[in-house]
Every structure is written in structure tokens, then in C-alpha cells.
Amino acid sequence: MESEARGGTRWRRFGLVMVPSVAATAAIGLALAQGALAASFSVSGQEFKVRVDYLDGRGFNQYGTIVSPSGSGSSRPVAVSAFDSATIEDLCQSVVIPTPIGDVTVRITAGTDPDNPVTAENLFIDLEQLNAQAVFSNIDIGVAVGEMTRGPDPNTPDVDPNSFGQQSERAQLWDVEQVAWATSAGTFRLTDLSLSLHRGSDEECF
Asked: Considering only CA atoms, which of 57, 24, 53 is closest in space to residue 167?
């Protein structure tokens, strides 16, 4: 499968992510809301926020598709973004969970030391909104042609073979703020991990 923007460029994978999320967020969120511990974080009808000071990713791919978050009762357009590998400085992610005692914010921070950042491989996110400063190296943009590979999460939606897509050898992003519905990763190494719970929604990452 090749792009038509530059003949000979191979779209190796459509799907990965702009910024990672942690399975612990879903686990604790669902534990609070449903009394059960989640094994992984997938489309659950609950959006979450991620803020990152700096992300340096290799093997970036992105495409548009439609997902149906469970419990939401409707379908939503998302941009599925991906990195083969990424290093992330000063990661914050938060999710607000409704509980019998009111809203509770689960907040996770990691990678606060620039010399010891968060690292991830095979990272996928269903992205609804992204604000950042960005530089893309050797980028192709166009309509994807042919079969596209699904992500590591078996719940990853099938890709429309006529979907708009883009790929880049390297993507650097600063001052990232994103809203997402789901994430998955092959490996996620979180340094200086801190997890806290707060009543209300004043402690969201942005």
C-alpha cells in the first residue's frame, strides 16, 4: 500500500497516537464508577485529557474514522494517531468520573525529569481534539489506498480504505493539550509516576 503524495512511500501502519494514556486511569475510573477493575483502557464512553510539555515521536501515522463509545449512545468521529516509538516529557493526564459522592478527578503525572522521560512503543489514541506546536519531518498527506493494519487493541475500529491519512518519519510536538476517547500501547514506561484523586473537576490537566 503506497501513498500517492510521493510515489514509493509505504503507509506501513495507519493508526497510533498523538500522546499516550495509562491503563491505570481506566482501571481506577471504572473501579470508582462500577466497582470493578479494568484490565485495559479502550473506548468506554468517558473522554480524558492529556497535557505534555514535549513529545518526540518516530514513525507517526494518522487517519480519520468513526467510533461508537459504549454508553454514549452515539457515534463520534476521531483521528486515530500513532507512533512506532515516542519519548514524552512532563506528562499529565486526567479523567473526571461521576460517583455517588460527586465528580472525582483521577490525575496521573509522569516524566517530570527531562533527563528521564516517559517512553512508549506502538502507541494508539482515538483523538477528538489536539492543540500543540508541531514540526513534522518527511511528511506525506493524502487519501490512503488499500488495506490498513489494525492496532494492537482488538477493539480498534476497522479503517475506511478511502480515509484521509498522513504519515511522517518524525513528529515533534510542544505544549500539547488533547482530548481523547481511548488509547492502547505495546509498552509504556512511566518515570516519576504520581497518581492522585480529587473531588470535583478543578484538578484536570487543563
From this structure: 57
